[in-house]
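Dear Dr. H.,

I hope your travels went smoothly. While you were away I took the liberty of generating a structure for the chain from your last submission, since the lab meeting agenda had it listed for discussion. I wanted you to have the full record in hand beforehand rather than looking at slides cold. The sequence, exactly as received, is reproduced here:
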Amino acid sequence: MHLYEVLRRPLITEKNSALQAQGKYVFEVAGEANKHQIKQAVEKTFKVKVTAVNVMTVPGKERRVGGRQVQTQSWKKAIATLKPGDKIEIFEGT
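The corresponding predicted structure, in token form, is as follows:
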């Protein structure tokens, strides 16, 4: 898997905005990606130093479509902790 395929999009929520004060940034990542690939992708894309990566799988939710129940897809998210002093500018503008 190419490094630019690992990161799908940044996740911008109130809770994730509070994590930015601690130097932690949250991304939706590819389901096959592991911690080493995520760390390399963040470092290469944003030119920062990552000290830790936490990964979790978010289970899909049940939704009603017409008269039947369907399950949305599960997806993976990662929290990248940066070296003190580093920050990602793309998050700062939002």
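Two observations you may find useful: The longest helix spans residues 35-46. Residues 3-86 form a domain with the Alpha-Beta Plaits fold (CATH 3.30.70.330).

With kind regards,
E. W.
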